[in-house]
Amino acid sequence: MVIGYLASRFPDVSQTWMLRELEAVGSDPEIECELLPLFPPQSRMGTVHPSAEGWIERLRRPGPREAVASLAWWLRHSPRRLLAAIALVCAGYVRRPNLLARALVTVAIASAHARSVARLGVDHLHAHTATYPVLAAWLCHRLTGVTYSFTPHGQDLYVDQSFLETRLAAARFVIAISDFNRGFLAAYGGDRATPVHLVRCGIDLSTYRFRPRAPVSGDPVRALCVASLKDPKGQHVLFEALAHGGPELDRVSIDLVGDGPLRERLQRLAEGLGLADRVSFHGALPEPAVAEFLGDADLFVLPSMISPNGTMEGLPMALMEALAAGVPVVATRVSAVPELIRDGETGLLAEPGDAADLSRAIRLVLADPESARRRSETGRALVERNHDAVRSGIALAHLFKTGSPYVPELAPEAHGESGPLSEPEAVPPW
Which of 1, 123, 133, 273 would give a disulfide with 127, using CB separation of 3.0 to 4.6 Å? Predict the structure, then answer.
């Protein structure tokens, strides 16, 4: 079976989640994966994970000439299908004219991918994100009849729902990475006409050596934040929390791994708050380097928030990686984050955008190292149970081949010394 993966861009340093999925699904002997990105990678995010190298040689991304030629080809051979699809796209984006131009560019690129579907023998398309990749999958379906599915993540789902109901209704099935996303999709027809299956994102557990730890009383604390430097990540709130959190936080320094449009502004803010000697900017790094930072960190903080336009996290892979490594975690109550960071059980939660509450949570970690260590053990158990890339890949491959959810044999639940996780039914294995 040949699965065509549609993504906005490839490769980008932020796509560890997609690389893991490609490797996991592609390991099934009955499945071959083809990579079909829409747009070139962003130059400022040009760091490539070593595991991406093999996929770069296999990706197929049509250029402008091929896209225009493909539109002309479909106009000659299936004009009604193409023009009807374009009309539906225009109607779907009528309330968002600022997005319509990009949607029409996607239609042109997708028309080229639609021609490749037959040449490559693609049996099913899977799109990552609920925006342009699934629009491309939908167009390929309209032109060729190939089935498709898609996985919404974060801002692609929460900020813009243009055309979402149409794309949901035509999909063979949809993948939700969290209970939060599944509930969000239900308002647009998910689980009515189209099945929505819960398959949580996974990580390669072998990449992160588990070392349960906690800050040592009185010693310097090396905190880590792995996130792009964008509004919904909330690094400025973390700076405020450290600057005004009282003398207990004076021993905390922060390593920022990630890049983005707010880097210069954040550097100026750190200087203005007197944190220049306690905040280090390391830029975007590949996964092995991130794993090294996690191995040295005493604390992991992700101060996610909801931007004014509604942009927010989906289910951050960085939190899974921190839990897998055994680093005590402080995060915020945003979207699906509480499904992973269970307050007082696998980490501590603060209110988004509230620097005082974030300071409170960090101080609790510093004041009670033993509890922090117990939470890190329980956090590793949760990741092993729900976020193992191998198990997620098996579930996805089964869905692609059969359209039905994978039901593994029941096995005893692993848990740390702190005991089993509470309310395990709230986080199903898949």
Answer: 133
Cβ neighbours for 224, distance < 8 A, ≥ 6 positions apart: 254, 255, 257, 293, 294, 297, 299, 300, 301, 322, 327
Is residue 30 a contact partner of residue 401, using CB atoms and an 8 Å limit? yes
Q: Are the beta carbons of 270 and 200 closer than 8 angstroms?
A: no
Give me the CATH code for the 205-382 domain, please: 3.40.50.2000
The strand pairing partners of 299, in sequence order, are 223
Indicate the fold that domain 2-198 takes in CATH: Rossmann fold (3.40.50)
Of 148-152, 287-291, 422-426, where does mean pLDDT reach its minimum? 422-426
The boundaries of every CATH 3.40.50.2000 domain in the chain are: 2-198, 205-382
Query: In this predicted model, what pLDDT tens digit does every residue of 294-321 receive, in sequence order?
Result: 999 999 999 999 888 778 888 999 999 9
Q: Are 67 and 111 in contact (CB under 8 A)?
A: yes
Residue 413, classed as helix, strand or coil, is: coil
Confidence (pLDDT) at 48? 56
Separation CA 304–CA 350 (nearest Å) = 10
Backbone angles phi, psi at 175, to 5 degrees: -105, 125
pLDDT in tens, 348-374: 999 999 999 999 999 999 999 999 999
Question: Residues 385, 389, 391, 396: is their CA dihedral positive or negative?
Answer: positive
